[in-house]
């Protein structure tokens, strides 16, 4: 086990403090590492699962599922189910599955699956490209591979919307079994009203280079605009870096995201436009009251601005709101140390680790801690 994983397993998400020379050393070390690509040797998307299976959705469409057991072989205390965003796949949770497998307080069994029309799952039609159907698919996966025990749901972008749709369709599941929910870079409604600024949609933006071939910018919603192919039929690295990330992302991670996006054809993405545009589930958020909820977003997100996260937190006053400074639309890839750290907080709260660790885990972690969390994760890797 690497030093960072030992640190995460022992300390988890509990707040830490570092001052003076120690903080200065951490900052200098981090700045030095930023001059090189810290993920250039990371086996992105290549982590082998412990089990692979196919789950039949309610209409028979095959859904590709991967399971990851606790690394130490111990019995899991909770099952974490990751629900990815449009045009992505199970691979988008690379850093979380890597580090959470080593967690021992609590031990986590991880479940990841591909939406229909994505990755290795079956096809999607115009009629089944709805959040309601994606919610049914998520429920099918839960029934098949996590039929009992506590569950924490983690959803990114459309994955978060899918969780909200599931809460609307299956409220008893959230009252009885779902003990934690992490909503990452997502929205509960008004997706078309708050998104990419006009300057990004101009003729000088890489987004617009090949849009005419697809049908015009007006027909695209902010949720999927980042995935528009250029005139050659492929996304450009420049467009992905500009629209999906914040400040200075790892070039290796940018290329990794680009490769994921290239797998899903534009014709599949177009089918989801209507359901995202009509998504309005602010009232449904009340159904999450039985679970610990955290809302994570980047304040440089051009696709779904951080104001969406703030609005969700306004509707759920007990939720933990996490603002990841400088992060874009994929904070789990751009700043994995911070996102995973807060996920550990959520898992510990959901499993009530106070009784197991002998110390209380706070449900409200100050935003001032987030930079230090990132430094500590890099330092102890």
Automatic annotation (TrEMBL):
Database matches in Gene3D superfamilies: alpha/beta hydrolase
Domain AB hydrolase-1, first and last residues per copy: 81-339
UniProt entry tagged with the keyword Plastid: no
Cited InterPro entries: AB_hydrolase, AB_hydrolase_1, AB_hydrolase_fold
GO molecular function terms noted in the UniProt entry: acyltransferase activity; hydrolase activity
Key words, A-Z: Acyltransferase, Hydrolase, Transferase
This protein's name: Putative hydrolase or acyltransferase of alpha/beta superfamily
UniProt source species: Haloechinothrix halophila YIM 93223
């Amino acid at each position: 086990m690497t030093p960072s994983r030992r640190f995460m397993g022992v300390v988890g998400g509990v707040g830490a403090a570092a001052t003076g020379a120690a903080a200065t050393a951490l900052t200098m070390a981090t700045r030095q590492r930023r001059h090189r690509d810290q993920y250039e040797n990371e086996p992105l998307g290549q982590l082998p699962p412990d089990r692979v299976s196919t789950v039949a959705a309610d209409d028979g469409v095959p859904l590709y599922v991967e399971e990851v057991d606790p690394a130490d072989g111990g019995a899991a205390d909770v099952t974490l189910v990751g629900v990815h965003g449009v045009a992505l796949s199970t691979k988008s949770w690379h850093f979380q599955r890597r580090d959470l497998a080593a967690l021992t307080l609590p031990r986590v069994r991880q479940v990841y699956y591909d939406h229909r029309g994505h990755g290795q799952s079956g096809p999607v039609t115009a009629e089944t490209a709805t959040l309601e159907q994606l919610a049914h698919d998520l429920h099918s996966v839960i029934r098949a591979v996590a039929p009992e025990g506590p569950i924490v749901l983690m959803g990114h972008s459309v994955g978060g919307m899918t969780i909200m749709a599931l809460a609307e369709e299956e409220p008893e599941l959230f009252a009885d079994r779902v003990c934690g929910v992490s909503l990452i870079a997502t929205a509960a409604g008004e997706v078309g009203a708050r998104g990419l600024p006009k300057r990004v949609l101009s003729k000088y933006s890489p987004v617009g280079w090949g849009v005419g071939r697809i049908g015009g910018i007006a027909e695209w919603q902010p949720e999927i605009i980042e995935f528009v192919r250029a005139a050659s039929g492929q996304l450009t690295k420049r467009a992905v870096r500009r629209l999906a990330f914040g400040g200075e992302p790892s070039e290796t991670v940018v290329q990794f995201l680009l490769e994921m996006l290239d797998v899903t054809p534009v014709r599949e993405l177009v089918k989801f436009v209507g359901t995202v545009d009509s998504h309005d589930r602010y009232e449904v958020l009340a159904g999450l009251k039985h679970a610990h909820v955290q809302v994570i977003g980047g304040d440089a997100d051009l696709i779904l601005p951080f104001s969406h996260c703030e609005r969700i937190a306004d509707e759920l006053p007990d939720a933990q709101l996490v603002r990841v400074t400088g992060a874009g639309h994929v904070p789990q890839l751009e700043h994995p140390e911070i996102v995973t750290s807060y996920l550990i907080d959520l898992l510990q709260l959901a499993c009530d680790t106070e009784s197991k660790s002998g110390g209380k885990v706070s449900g409200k972690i100050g935003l001032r801690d987030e930079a230090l969390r990132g430094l500590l994760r890099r330092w102890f890797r």
